């Protein structure tokens, strides 16, 4: 599957549709070249590995008591370091990120995840290495 975004629910954006078409075309081009016997050299790519889903701060009645901090909003895939602002309580108190490593939040404040109790997802950068591949045909 391919998920390209961000895109609000029920909205079709031309720029996102164009990105989706390009990635699907690249995937189909790869399959065609592979099926024709092209050899692909070894490569290393950087990816983001999901580590943890993070909920909004809640009180004892399970009610949300803080919102995404303005400095974090719309910062998907950007580094979040120890001490950076994470949430803002309804009383104006800043809740900072407390972590032992830099993470890269994504799906920040996505409406589709409110019911799943997910404010964002913490990811880390990981390098993956692939050996050369070639069709055996």
UniProtKB/TrEMBL annotation:
Task: State the GO CC annotations.
Answer: cytosol
Query: What's an example of a GO molecular-function annotation for this chain?
Result: hydrolase activity, acting on carbon-nitrogen (but not peptide) bonds, in linear amides
- Cited Gene3D superfamilies: Zn peptidases
Give residue ranges for domain AstE/AspA barrel-sandwich hybrid.
Answer: 44-123
Any Pfam family matching the protein: AstE_AspA_hybrid
In terms of superkingdom, the source organism counts as Eukaryota
SUPFAM superfamilies xrefs = Zn-dependent exopeptidases
- Record-given protein name: ACY2 Aspartoacylase
Q: Which organism is it from?
A: Smutsornis africanus
Q: Which gene encodes it?
A: Aspa_0
